[in-house]
Specification:
156 residues; alpha+beta; Porin; 2 domains; eight-stranded antiparallel beta barrel; 53% strand
Length: 156
């Protein structure tokens, strides 16, 4: 028959094992953020644009797209997105996920741009990425989705 002291001893031992396996502080998370790129250049060679008109959606192949994401601060959940030609930079918010980071751009009109950058593919050295746009032109929905990758352009 198990005594209360035995149950408490077993519970205490289990708790000690759990506490011993946990990180002593948030150093592990800080290390992950410290190792993450602070600057990325993203290129999307494949894409589809869909617009709504005359009672239905129509799709077409989208032109290639490129831009840079800089000043990436995972802890502060902020970054800057600069158009491929370097003419415009906007602030973006970061939503962190398991094996990815989402960069959310909300433009003045309320339209959205979302870029998801996944963990580095060590075989290619690239970060697989997907970019989506949700906007409207003359009151009609226009959406786009692009597939590509990003490269780490963090200064040494």
């Amino acid at each position: 028959m198990t005594t209360i002291r035995t149950k408490i001893a077993v519970l205490g031992a289990a708790l000690a094992c759990v506490l011993a396996s946990a990180p002593a502080s948030s150093d592990a998370a800080a290390t992950d953020a410290d190792m993450a790129p602070t600057d990325l250049t993203c290129t999307f060679a494949t894409g589809t644009s869909v617009s709504y008109g005359d009672g239905g959606f129509a799709s077409k192949v989208a032109s290639p797209l490129s831009f840079s994401i800089t000043k990436i601060d995972l802890d502060g959940q902020s970054a800057a997105l600069t158009a491929g030609d370097g003419t415009q930079t906007v602030a973006v918010r970061i939503i962190r996920a398991v094996n990815a980071n989402h960069f959310l751009e909300v433009v003045n009109e309320g339209f959205l741009g979302l870029t998801t950058v996944y963990d580095k593919d060590f075989k290619t050295g690239l970060y697989p990425a997907v970019h989506s746009r949700h906007l409207g032109v003359l009151g009609q929905p226009v959406v786009g989705q692009y597939l590509g990758s990003c490269t780490d352009t963090t200064p040494p």
